[in-house]
Write a structure and sequence with these properties.
- The complex is a heterodimer of chains A (598) and B (586).
- Chain A is α/β, with parallel strands linked by helices.
- Chain A is 65% helix and 11% strand.
- In chain A, helix 18 links the parallel strand 9 and strand 10.
- The radius of gyration of chain A is 37 Å and the shape is elongated.
- The two termini of chain A are 62 Å apart.
- Chain B has two domains: 308 residues, Up-down Bundle (ABC transporter transmembrane region fold); 249 residues, Rossmann fold, CATH 3.40.50.
- In chain B, a hairpin with a 2-residue loop joins strand 9 and strand 10.
- The longest helix of chain B has 53 residues.
- Classes of the chains: A alpha/beta (598), B alpha/beta (586).
């Protein structure tokens, strides 16, 4: 928590409010109408005490005959019923209207945040835990609209009520009103103090709660270590300490409320007693009737309710602001890869790729690629091999422009990759990534990714190409089979096949495979490779694989080491060199033998 | 109220403050009704002319003043006593829950998600606390204040009260049922919200795929659909709650209007005084709270009972690893381990993980346990640590049967370096000194030096006081491993077990650590689980596991001669080294 002066925060709040009001603007008309209606209902709610006072005055007036009194009661009750009915009806519309505006604003902000997050690069979103991103898109917008439709509206209603009641009190008896309201400054002071203390108390509570939750989640998952080290008692006493701290912070909060609420009650009752004293005095002086005295007494009771609420509402306003700030943080984050203004749409992709002295780093001064150059002609298949961290996957990421390079140039069909719209570029590239990601939904949805133009016929064809049809045939509901979260009801190999079908159904011109067949048995792999070669749409293929059997038929193999290309050539040429590739080959060959001999 | 075991003792433990709180509440409930009555007497006195001088009301004002001051103090106290009790009980239960959590074994934790356990600690505890605090207040106020007010209203005008009370009581019943229905609407709204959250969660997790296929727009459309459902469900819930509020409002207003009209006529007939009408209306407003309080109480009581049952179930969960009555305690183990025909399968597993394993480790030996992933190495260690129960006579520590030793005794003698290197978000000093109440510098530095982490630590700004992030994420995997090794070494245990603990460090560091171990562990038993030959090559003895079977025991030399599997592993790994070296030189 910041310890800056209050002013800084107030200033921040003002800035936030201005920005938030923009969301309200489209509903300005409705919002103002709702406010207007709210003012009316606030007024009509104030009628009853006045009516009771007037009624008493009339009823005890000996000059009015009984029949007249009955008539007055009948007419008066009729009017009051009418007013109440209207007020209730208005209240209904006003409430519904406000809630509607609130929900619409929430819906709108949610979409805005969601689309914005999708625009951010993978590098950017990876910096934040997914849970936080989800909160930005779901909970925080709800907090903001809650602030508009409940907190702010009630705040204004309460202010309004105070003013109306004060006016009525002055209207009934100005002097008495003045005297009874002498406690108001005291109430404001008490409320200001309450705001200050309750905020601190709340902060302690919040900190202790998150401390205890952190402790629990860590220790429940790490219980084995505690037990193996015989340290249960130590952990229990650590827990006691923070548990007690939490209790203390709660008791402190209870005490703050416990002092504030009764204090307000005390001050309100002080006013009531003043009202009784001066009321009775005024009756004796003839400046007040008994009925109006009753009205006055009831109004005074109602006067303090809104003041007390205002102080508490200011606190919930803060949490709305906090959400707004977090959301604006996300919205203000510029996507670090954007299309250049003159970027073009590719009409087609022939499939030539050229890396010209490409240098790239994720973090400053840690070069992942150090001057990589190679060229792939259309219809060629090339492979990248090398140890983990040698930069193979990075090359593929750069090709689909998940990141921008620092030095050098990447050309696709002779055009600088930065001059091509990313969406256009990616629509021609089929990517089969290292970790296959499946969404929950049906297999069909996972293959089409909700693209309605893809027919079941297309899916079937793609499935046959990659050998997924064997899997589908085993399932009673075929394509409609449900995929559970992250596809955990499928084996790794099946998952790869599904995501393979996904890549194929989009008919890419350039296909990149990053360890795409690692979990598939060699037989299926052979089927896939054969199919890929047959596929007319694919011209160029880039394969990253550990298994050398996967790549040995490639036109060219590039052996990578620590961000540089060390050797290249076809399988035979590289074997003859007896270099790195040769060693790798020998290793795998022997491993295979071992597996077979088991 | 909750009468389950684990909960009922608090009525006695905090009995005094419960009693005091309730007495204060009842007193307030009684005396607050004196105020309208006093005001009535003032009004009537003025109207009928029995009060003709302002000084005559001083005694009334004084009476009110005393009540108000008393109520102000009383209101603070019941908050402190009753709400405070809620918090105190919550704290006690939380503490009991955590204590219980430390007794539960891995068998329990492997079947429970941490998130689910956390929700007992957070959500369930919260609704129990609410019942003990706010719930009790509502129950007492509802019954006592409700009773007081009603009786006073009856005395004032029983007919009017009957007419006024019936619709209000009906409203109370209505509110109860409506809350149930509203809960359903609310749940639908929550479900829709969760559905949307899940969608966003998946979408953000799979962002790379979405971008790869240029499906951003389609995803946004999908999210829009989910968000629209939330919108609809929210509106349906809100509309319902607005209508409910309006109905309640309308009913109350109508009853008040009826009282006002009827009362006015009574005044005109002189059968009711204006003071009495004022008093009556005050009572009526006071009556509303008890009516709502009762129906709300019933509501949170239902939720709290369900939560209490879940907490009860957690507190009653029994571990399967625990000490029997006849356990052997407080003995010193010599460091030798004998396994005889050891067979084991997990409580819910069908196929045995370890099959008929027999071996003998002498005190002071440095033993390597080698095997591929899934060969049963870690399970063997978990049995030694009594994380799971071995059967009788399967494992012996010296002369003692492991199944009969207390877990505490066994674990006191063993230092353990786990595979996942779980560290606490605490200082490095406290992590290494985890086995101690307070670790002295000499022990700390010695352990850190032996595990080759001392130099790294001295480079941190706060040195040994550096606080590791949750699960120690702020340091590298290799550093984590070494801190974890230091933690076990600091204990200087009779038996040290390292479960694949040098995999994340480079070969040079590995060699340094191994050399240090050899020196420091002289005369003490050390078990080293590994899958690299280089790690176990120079050890006194190697146990080779494969698919849960012990396929070879011996030194490197012996196994090279006799064991085919071992020979193959050696050959393979030599090739790997060759490639690595070729790459390094390339």
């Amino acid at each position: 928590m910041r310890d800056f002066s209050e002013q800084v925060i107030e200033h921040r709040d003002l800035r936030l409010v201005r920005r938030l009001l923009k969301y309200l603007r489209p509903y300005a008309g409705k919002f103002i109408l709702a406010f207007g209606l709210m003012i009316i209902t606030t007024f009509t709610n104030m009628v009853l005490p006045m009516a009771s006072g007037l009624s008493i005055d009339i009823m005890i007036d000996p000059l009015i005959p009984f029949d007249r009194k009955v008539l007055i009661v009948a007419v008066g009750t009729g009017v009051l019923i009418l007013i109440t009915a209207i007020s209730i009806l208005i209240g209904y519309f006003q409430n519904i209207m406000l809630q509607n505006i609130g929900q619409e604003i929430t819906h709108k902000i949610r979409l805005e945040v969601f689309t914005h997050i999708e625009k951010l690069s993978v590098g950017q979103t990876n910096q934040l835990p997914v849970g936080k991103l989800v909160t930005r898109a779901t909970n925080d917008p709800a907090n903001i609209s809650e602030m508009f439709t409940n907190t702010i509206v009630n705040l204004i209603r309460n202010f309004l009520m105070m003013i109306i009641i004060a006016t009525i009190l002055f209207f009934i008896h100005p002097l008495m009103a003045l005297v009874t309201m002498t406690t108001v400054p005291l109430i404001f002071i008490a409320s200001a103090l309450f705001r200050k203390y309750s905020r601190t108390a709340y902060r302690y509570v919040r900190n202790s709660v998150s401390e205890i939750n952190g402790f629990l989640s860590e220790n429940l998952s790490g219980m084995k270590i505690t037990q193996v080290f015989n340290q249960e008692n130590k952990k229990i006493s650590e827990f006691e300490v923070i548990n007690k701290k939490l209790k203390k912070s709660y008791i402190r909060e209870i005490n703050v409320f416990g002092v504030y609420r009764p204090t307000i009650f005390l001050l309100a009752m002080a006013s009531t007693m003043l009202a009784i004293y001066f009321g009775v005095d005024s009756i004796f002086k003839g400046t007040l009737t008994i009925g109006l005295f009753v009205s006055f007494y009831v109004y005074i009771g109602q006067f303090f309710e809104p003041i007390q609420q205002i102080a508490e509402q200011f606190n919930s306003l803060q949490s709305g602001f906090a959400s707004a700030e977090k959301i604006f943080d996300v919205l203000d984050t510029k996507p670090d890869i954007v299309d250049e203004p003159e970027a073009i749409e590719l009409p087609e992709l022939k499939g030539s790729i050229e890396f010209k002295d490409v240098w790239f780093q994720y973090i400053p001064d840690e070069w992942v690629l150090k001057g990589v150059s190679f060229k792939v002609e259309p219809d060629e298949t090339i492979a990248l091999v090398g140890a983990t961290g040698s930069g193979k996957t990075t090359i593929l990421s750069l090709l689909v422009r998940n990141y921008d390079i620092q030095k050098g140039q990447i050309l696709i069909d002779g055009i600088d990759i930065r001059k091509i719209k990313r969406s256009s570029l990616r629509s021609f590239i089929g990517q089969m990534l290292q970790d296959t990601f499946l969404f929950s939904g049906t297999i069909r949805e996972n293959i089409t990714l909700h693209d309605e133009s893809i027919t079941d016929e297309d899916i079937k064809k793609a499935s046959e190409y990659v050998g997924l049809d064997y899997v589908l045939n085993k399932l009673p509901d075929g394509l409609d089979h449900q995929v559970r979260e992250r596809g955990n009801n499928f084996s790794s190999g099946e998952k790869q096949l599904i995501s393979f079908a996904r890549a194929v159904v989009y008919q890419p011109s350039l296909m990149i495979l990053d360890e795409a067949t690692a979990n598939i048995d060699s037989e299926t792999e052979a089927i896939i490779q054969h199919s890929l070669e047959k596929m007319m749409s694919i011209s160029t293929m880039i394969i990253v694989a550990h298994r050398l059997s996967t790549i040995q038929h490639s036109d060219r193999i590039y052996v990578m080491n620590k961000g540089e290309i060390k050797e290249f050539g076809n399988h035979q040429e590289l074997l003859k060199k007896k270099g790195l590739y040769y060693a790798l080959y020998q290793l795998q060959f022997d491993a295979k033998e071992t597996v077979l001999s088991e | 109220m909750i009468l389950l075991k684990h909960f009922r003792q608090y009525y006695i433990k905090y009995g005094l403050s419960f009693l005091l709180g309730i007495i204060v509440l009842i007193a307030i409930d009684w005396y607050q009704l004196e105020i309208p009555r006093t005001i009535k007497s003032v009004i009537d006195g003025v109207q009928t002319g029995t009060i003709i001088d302002i000084t005559q009301i001083f005694s009334s004002l004084l009476y009110i003043l005393v009540i108000v001051v008393g109520m102000t103090i009383g209101r603070f106290w019941w908050r402190f006593l009753l709400f405070g009790n809620g918090r105190r009980i919550e704290t006690d239960i939380r503490s009991e829950m955590f204590k219980h959590a430390t007794t539960l074994d891995q068998n329990f934790y492997s079947h429970q998600k941490v998130g689910g356990l956390m929700s007992h600690f957070i959500n369930d505890l919260n609704s129990v606390r609410e019942l003990f605090g706010f719930g009790l207040l509502m129950l007492v106020d509802g019954l006592v204040l409700g009773g007081f007010v009603l009786s006073r209203m009856f005395v004032l005008d029983w007919k009017m009260t009957l007419y006024a009370f019936i619709p209000i009581a009906l409203m109370g019943v209505l509110v109860f049922f409506i809350e149930v229905k509203m809960e359903k609407k609310f749940r639908e709204r929550q479900d829709a919200f969760e559905f949307m959250s899940d969608f966003a969660q998946e979408s953000f997790t799979g962002l790379a795929v979405i971008k790869a296929y240029v499906r951003e727009a389609a995803e946004a459309l999908g999210f829009k659909g989910k968000s629209k459902v939330v919108y609809d469900k929210s509106m349906s819930h809100l509309r319902y709650s607005v209508i409910v509020n309006i109905i309640i409002d309308a009913m109350i207003s109508m009853v008040i209007l009826a009282i006002l009209a009827y009362g006015s006529i009574l005044i005109a007939q002189s059968s009711l005084s204006s003071g009495e009408l004022t008093e009556y209306i005050s009572y009526f407003f006071t009556l509303l709270w008890p009516v709502f309080a009762i129906s709300w109480f019933l509501n949170i009581n239902g939720q709290a009972q369900a939560s209490a049952k879940r907490i009860y179930a957690f507190l009653e969960a029994k571990p399967i690893v625990y000490d029997h009555d006849d356990t052997i305690k407080d003995v010193t183990l010599d460091g030798s381990i004998i396994a005889s025909d050891l067979t084991f399968n997990y409580p819910d597993g069908e196929t045995p993980i370890l099959k008929n394993i027999s071996f003998e480790i002498k005190a002071g030996e440095l033993v390597g346990i080698l095997g591929r992933t899934g060969s049963g190495k870690s399970t063997l260690v978990e049995l030694l640590l009594r994380v799971y129960n071995p059967k009788e006579n399967m494992i012996h520590f010296g002369a003692y049967d492991a199944a009969k030793l207390s877990t505490k005794t066994i674990r006191e003698h063993i230092g353990y370096v786990p595979q996942d290197n779980f560290l606490y978000s605490d200082t490095i000093r406290n992590n290494i000194g985890f086995a101690f109440a307070h670790i002295d510098d000499a022990t700390l530095y010695k352990a850190a030096n032996l595990s080759d982490i001392h130099e790294n630590v001295t480079q941190f700004k706060d040195q040994y006081e550096t606080v590791l992030g949750e699960r120690g994420v702020t340091i590298s995997g290799g550093q984590k491993q070494r801190v974890s090794i230091a933690r076990a070494l600091a204990k200087d245990p009779t038996i040290l077990i390292l479960d694949d603990s040098v995999s994340a460090v480079d070969t040079k560091t590995e060699e340094a650590i191994l050399a240090n171990l050899r020196k420091a562990r002289k005369g003490k038993t050390t078990l080293l689980i590994a899958h690299r030959i280089s790690t176990v090559k120079k050890l006194d003895k190697i146990l080779l596991l494969d698919h849960g079977i012990l396929v070879g025991v011996g030194t490197h030399k012996e196994l090279m001669k006799t064991n085919a599997l071992y020979q193959e592993m050696v050959k393979l790994q030599e090739l790997e080294t060759m490639v690595a070296e070729a790459e390094a030189h390339a």
